[in-house]
Structure formats: C-alpha cells, structure tokens
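Give me structure tokens for this 116-residue protein.
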Amino acid sequence: MSEERTIIMTRDSFCMGDDVTAPNKQIFKWHDTDWYPEIGFYEMIERYLGTNLPGFYWRGFAGHVRIVDVSIHRKGMKFTREIELVENWQELLRKNNHIHFLHEEHTNKDALPIKI
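Here you go.
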C-alpha cells in the first residue's frame, strides 16, 4: 500500500519575533506506505522544525493526542535531534492530517501535556 497524503504542521511560537508568523503553518506531502513510512515522516519533521532550535523539546499532537516527541540538542557546533513516535503514530496520522507542536525548554519538558 502506498498513498500520498497531505500533512499540515503548525506550532506555537518560541519567541516574540516568531509571533509574527504564528501558527507557522506548513503543508507537506507524505507517502503513507508499509515500507519504512517513518523515514518520510522524520524528514518532514526535520524540515519543519529544523535543527537550529537547541534547548527545546517539542511535542506534536494529531487530533489532540500525542503523536511524536522531538528533542533538539546542540553539542559544540553540531546540532542533533531525537524523534520518538508513539506506537500507533501511523494510525493517528491517517485519522488526522494536522499536527500541532507545543514546546518547552529541556529542563521543563515534563510540563508538556499528553493531550490537548
């Protein structure tokens, strides 16, 4: 099975200067396939959040339910990211094509809700 789906991503702003473009909407095409579907999803998240926002922990919600956690770290001049999907992420994404991201600083990531 392979089907192209439109995915909309939005996020809360992370500073006053970012408020100008809030909710920072971007539209992506994702190939829903049984053959490593998470790879294309990871790429969309990386393009959307970038790797230049160190110190933030992002939680994405589809249909008000957590679908993904993203952590961006800076080590020296290099940025790394960690993406953790919930077990039923593909099912959630098939039901709701809008993902909204909330963020907290790494020191306060436990303050993020599980549902919104």
